[in-house]
Amino acid sequence: MSKVIVIGGGAAGIFAAGKAAENGHEVHIYEKNNKLGKKIYITGKGRCNITNDSDVDNFLNNIPGNPYFLYSAFYTFDSQKTIEFFNALGVKTKVERGNRVFPVSDKAIDVVVALEGYMRKMKVKLHLETPVKSLIVEGGAVKGIVTSRGEKVMADGVIVTTGGLSYPGTGSTGDGYNFAKDCGHHVTPLYPSLVPLKAKEKWCADLMGLSLKNIKIVIKNSKGKEMYEDFGEMLFTHYGVSGPVILSASRHLLGKFGEGVMLSIDLKPALDYKELDNRILRDFEKYINKNFVNALDDLLPQKMIPVIIELSGIAKDKKVHDITKEERKALVELLKSLTLNITGTSGYNEAVITSGGVDVDEINPSTMESKIVKNLYFAGEVLDLDAYTGGFNLQIAFSTGYVAGNSICMEEI
Q1: What is the spatial distance between Cα 232 and Cα 212, in angstroms, rounded to a whole number?
Q2: CA distance 308 to 310
Q3: For position 412, what pLDDT does the model report?
Q4: Which terminus of the chain is less hemmed in, N or C, by CB atoms within 10 Å?
Q5: pLDDT attached to residue 173
Q6: Whether residue 251 is found in the same domain as residue 146
């Protein structure tokens, strides 16, 4: 029996530990928090978007960060096997919009409790509130760990599943990057990703909490080069914008905020300029004797009307029949291209995932073993792998964790 140490008790770590234990190893998890799966509790807004009910090709299309590294891992342990795994643990699942898979209970805690039970069943030994300080590497192979208390713990293999930098309150503080660097690995540039964006315009605060559906966004740099476009739902915050299309957009802005990022929101993408102009004309005919401020109820959410009026430059008490053709055309332009100056992101505290990590060129994609240090494995967010929202990131953790746990110390069995 070989002794395996897993550093980090999140999604990837639990899967790695469980599979290694199934293979007959003595497995120990070292976790700095006082419980396992702390980040899982907050995924999917507390509901836990476990995975996405789609094929491998769709997964690869939703992973902008090194997708083909995951080809072997996804075919070894795909989303269907993940669903079957949780169903076998008693977690019934359901499929929602976008093929997102959630527990029927809508409670992330049920997922964590099931995984804790799985750890007990596999007889994995837990060392909670025990941070790891460093790895012990001798003769080109990992030999164990040193805890923050200075205790040396020897092992036949080590799996690093420490996560990234996102949501540092859950314990993701980048420890694994330091372990990797100390072993000679390269760590690619790190950025908060799937993260809300900050805007220069103060009027965003006036719209805080307003959700817009079926809108189109286009992001360009100061030279007019298009960087990203999307269609869907977004949300205004007190400092800028958030919501699904914004989070996805943030992945394409990594390190580019110095280029003068401009966000254009098309509030009526189903209508072209002429169609929208005709629509406004009909509304104006309906409210022809009213003030401008009272003529937009059919067109816009109530909360947005004061902001649009201010940006339009049309006096709110101007009679509709007095609004000129030029003013109406400018209103159409505003509704088709509501523009924000994006200044940055809200940072790791609100980032769903970290983009960047241990360079996957230095990792064996079939086993997750380091190509530099023997018997050292990496899995999950610590690697330079990241995806869009929709259950794809958790599946990366499950698949890479499974492969690492299934591969470690196999020559010893």
Answers
A1: 8
A2: 5
A3: 56
A4: C
A5: 84
A6: no
- In this prediction, residue 295 carries a pLDDT of 96
Domain span including residue 371: 3-191+355-412
Q: What is the CA radius of gyration of the chain?
A: 25
141 shares its domain with 84: yes
Same-domain pairing of 10 and 153: yes
Nearest to 5 by CA among 154, 164, 168: 154
214 plus 298 within the same structural domain: yes
**Coil/strand/helix, residue 90:** coil
Number of domains in the chain: 2
325-331: long-range contacts, CB 8 A cutoff, minimum separation 24: 328/277, 328/280, 328/281, 328/284, 329/277, 331/280
pLDDT above 70: residue 405: yes
CB contact at 8 A, 145 and 153: yes
Q: Report yes or no: 247 and 219 within 8 Å, Cβ to Cβ.
A: no
353-403 pLDDT per residue, tens = 999 999 999 999 999 999 999 999 999 999 999 999 999 999 999 999 999
Same-domain status, 74 and 182 = yes
